[in-house]
Design goal:
Number of domains: 2
Distance between the termini: 13 Å
CATH topology of the largest domain: Spore Coat Polysaccharide Biosynthesis Protein SpsA, Chain A
Shape: globular
CATH class of the largest domain: Alpha Beta
Largest sheet: 7 strands, mixed
Strand content: 5-15%
Number of helices: 20
Structural class: alpha/beta
Strand order of the largest sheet: 3-2-1-4-7-6-8
Number of strands: 9
Length: about 550
């Protein structure tokens, strides 16, 4: 099958502009965020102290525990957003003319070597060619030496032909240790660079990326600049797989700039090599000191400029932020500076999301001690922890999916009663929470992402299981060729919940019709809850049936 990126219908699409800062929206959000936390605490206190069903604690306590976990996540989100403005004070010159006028020559006083790295492993040669062509078009100033390198771990002769065709350098390895991170580390060891631009095989850089980004590095403490990722291949039917990352980059990451907590996300990030080297060497020394067999490990432990890990980007970010010999800075540049391809089949999408989840969970397992040291400041700890905590959502999501099913089958309520007092607490919390999120994400569509947050629960639970079990989370390259087939077999847990919920609704409705049950309020609440759950899970069912354009 021909790679779908060849379809020309995508070529003329333009990326969204970053949201303009609005003092009014920011003030409104901060007001409602405070109310959300206050009302949420009021609701959770009520649930634990008043509304438990003591005749069914086996059911009542797991549900209120899940609600408490969700509320902790709400606190993390609201406090993260509250103390951070989207306004980025560390902006480079506003446009190209200002950069060219400055030229940065006075600052650097020498030629700057900037290398663009394209790590590849058995991707489509035609796909790589697109990326090479656009990388070669990147503009530079007169004191910049810009080169493009193919970091080829696949040893495909077609890539050697491509490298010669476009007069770029190709670096190969005998072993593929460390996968993408290992390829980058190997290249840094070979090439003497000042800065590196890391892109994926499908990343097509915009010509002005360096002119728009390099101004940040006039600050010696800036270790890397991350640019937003933008997928230009969204189908005409819409964002079937909830791939749109604008919420993450334009709201979450951008707000983290203020407290130096925006982390690297791999593709289209620009790094100061000196910072990577200093941090990697210090970490290598620490690992050698901790070694029980120094003579053996000193030859086997690599100096990892990019951490060898399934989530190599966020792991490297954590190490750089936690480097106690210098307070390095990270920046999320608000404008999109490249375009990329997104997963367009469920198999590829699940493989990618499993790696994201497993990598983040494994990272917390490995580096949890950093949260009890002074190597990270308080806000950085909050940002990294909130990223990890978001994956615990799979646990309370599973409980929320099962709860209405249990009620509809057993007629046992998880609360003491569905009274006006209960609804007063619940609706107030849900209302203020929704208003706060709407203000925080103004004009960005979040409904599909929220549904997939629920629908992804089996993938994240499996990731937790494998990490706890001690299995290694492997870095798998995301396929850029659409896979064909029936993917319903990949979502058996979601289908099971949908079918079971539907049966439970019918079962309870029949009992009400024949007069066996008369709790109409309880049925109505759980019916509404069940429909919401089914609607969320149907998003991934629709994705599994997607055939493409």
């Amino acid at each position: 099958m021909k790679p779908y990126f060849i379809q020309k219908i995508y070529e003329n699409r333009k990326p969204p502009k970053p949201q303009e800062y609005s003092p009014l929206l920011e003030s409104l959000f901060q007001f409602f965020a405070i109310l959300t936390i206050i009302v949420g605490a009021w609701y959770i206190h009520y649930r634990w102290t008043v509304s438990l069903n003591y005749d069914a604690l086996w059911f009542s306590i797991p549900l209120v525990f899940a609600e408490t976990m969700m509320f902790i996540g709400t606190i993390l989100v609201m406090t993260n957003f509250y103390f951070q403005s989207r306004y980025n004070k560390n902006s480079p010159p506003k446009d190209m003319s200002e950069v060219v006028e400055d030229k940065l020559i006075k600052y650097y006083k020498r030629e700057i070597k900037i290398d663009i790295y394209i790590p590849i492993y058995n991707e489509e040669p035609e796909l790589i060619e697109y990326s090479i062509i656009d990388a070669k078009k990147v503009k530079k100033l007169e004191n910049w030496q810009v080169n493009v390198y193919l970091l080829d771990d696949s040893k495909n002769e077609e890539f050697e032909v491509l490298a010669k065709k476009y007069n770029i350098n190709q670096i190969t390895r005998d072993k593929t240790k460390g996968r993408k991170a290992g390829a980058i580390t190997n290249a840094i060891n070979i090439i003497n660079s000042d800065f590196i631009v890391i892109i994926d095989s499908d990343t097509r850089l915009f010509p002005d990326i360096l002119l728009n980004i390099m101004g940040y590095f006039r600050d010696d403490k800036v270790a890397w600049v991350q640019t937003p990722q933008w997928f230009y291949d969204t189908p005409k039917e819409g964002d079937i797989f909830a791939n749109d990352p604008q919420m993450f980059f334009d709201v979450i990451q951008r707000r983290r700039n203020k407290f130096n907590a925006s982390f690297c996300c791999g593709a289209t990030s620009i790094h100061r090599v000196d910072a990577l080297k200093k941090v990697a060497i210090a970490r290598w020394v620490e690992r050698i000191k901790e070694s029980k067999n120094i003579q053996k490990d000193i030859n086997e432990i690599d100096i990892e400029y990019i951490a060898y890990h399934a989530s190599e980007d966020i792991y490297t970010s954590l190490l750089v932020h936690g480097f106690d010999k210098m307070e390095y800075k990270s920046i999320l540049h608000p404008q999109v500076e490249s375009k990329m391809l997104s997963p367009q089949d469920l198999l590829t999408w699940i493989t990618q999301r499993f790696r994201y989840a497993g990598g983040t969970i494994d990272l917390m397992k490995r580096e949890y001690k950093k949260f009890f040291t002074k190597s990270l400041n308080l806000t950085q700890k909050m940002m990294y922890f909130s990223t990890f905590w978001s994956y615990t959502g799979a646990i309370w999501t599973f409980i929320f999916l099962l709860s209405p099913i249990i009620y509809l089958f057993t007629n046992i309520a998880p609360v003491s009663s569905y009274s006006m007092e209960f609804f007063k607490h619940l609706i107030a919390f849900l209302l203020f929470n929704q208003i706060s999120l709407m203000l925080a994400t103004w004009s960005i569509e979040t409904n599909r992402g929220a549904k997939f947050f629920i629908a992804i629960f089996p993938i994240v639970l499996e990731a937790f299981y494998k990490v706890i079990k001690g299995e290694k989370i492997v870095f798998n390259v995301t396929s850029k060729v659409k896979q064909d087939g029936n993917f319903l077999s990949l979502i058996k847990p979601q289908l099971f919940i949908i079918v079971l919920t539907t049966i439970a609704i019918i079962f309870n409705a029949i009992l009400i019709l024949i007069g066996e049950r008369i709790n109409y309020t309880g049925f109505s609440v759980n019916l509404f809850w069940s429909i919401f759950n089914i609607s969320a899970l149907m998003a991934i069912v629709k994705a599994s049936l997607y055939k493409g354009e």
